[in-house]
Amino acid sequence: MPTFTAPDGTELAYHVRGDGEPLVVLPGGPMRAPRYLGDLGGLAAHRRLILLDLRGTGDSGVPEDPATYRCDRLVGDVEALRVHLGLERMDVLAHSAGGNLATLHAARHPHRVARLALITATPWALGIPVTAEDRLAAARLRHDEPWFAEAIGPFRKWLAGEADFDPVFVPFFYGRWDETARQHDARGDDEGNDEAADLYGSEGAYDPPATRAALKELTAPVLVLAGELDGGPRPELARRAAQAFPNAEFVVQPGAGHFPWLDDPEWFTRRIAAFFAGNATP
Questions:
Q1: Which domains does the chain have, with CATH numbers?
Q2: Do 113 and 105 meet the contact criterion of CB atoms below 8 Å apart?
Q3: Model confidence pLDDT, tens digit, residues 114-152
Q4: Nearest alpha-carbon partner for 240 in 115, 130, 116, 88
Q5: What is the rounded distance in angstroms from the CA atom of residue 133 to the CA atom of residue 258?
Q6: Can you tell me the distance from the alpha carbon of 271 to that of 277, in angstroms, rounded to the nearest whole number?
Q7: pTM higher than 0.90 for the full model?
Q8: Considering only CA atoms, which of 57, 5, 62 is closest in space to residue 33?
Q9: Which residues pair with 253 in a beta bridge?
Q10: What residues form DSSP beta bridges with 169?
Q11: What is the DSSP string of 165-207?
């Protein structure tokens, strides 16, 4: 397992899957170990995935200062990984909450990013919140599902802050609630760092006006991919986020939820591989 040292001395680990040109992958959660990403639906057949264990997760070390779990403080870790890999510029793919880290890194180091793909990324860093109504609107699209009637009530209560997270509404996060999704959800119980997750977006982590201004210097192509059935973010919010990047392309994966590489691996892999290869839309 390869490691490198962060600017504050914390030892960080990453995992390599596949062959070819490196693609740095930042996980979501926030602060979830990247094991849940697997090989991103077969993307490792096209690129060498460099999956970063963020500090305090997976095989990476725990920092002395918990304040360094804040998203803007993690940018230095991403940049240190680029230097460690010996890359003048790097391709980056980020999922969910990891999209904020990738966005802040691109804003701070616009000339170190070759291409950037934001996959069902929550755009907090751009000042675009995902609201309870957004999630409910997406949930209502699933009204024909056999599990909908049992799940929608607890989901509403959770979104209103009236109840704890209930596994009964987990299907809302997947485009297809099949055996693949069930196994994926079952593996996720021990992959996160709750303390780090609470601090990730804490006060001071985001400055949307400054980030938007800095992103004007980013010339790298950006792909913003939304899931048709995802509530965080819904496609319209992802479209708004794409407008913050000077050279962005926006795409909606049909029938996909928050983990689109599971819902249609072939579609996802073809689309993402083509983007990073610089090819036209397949």
A1: 3-127+176-277 (3.40.50.1820), 133-173 (no CATH)
A2: yes
A3: 999 999 999 999 999 999 999 999 999 999 999 999 999
A4: 130
A5: 16
A6: 10
A7: yes
A8: 57
A9: 227
A10: none
A11: --GGGGGGGSSS-SHHHHHHHHTTTTSB-HHHHHHHT-TTS--
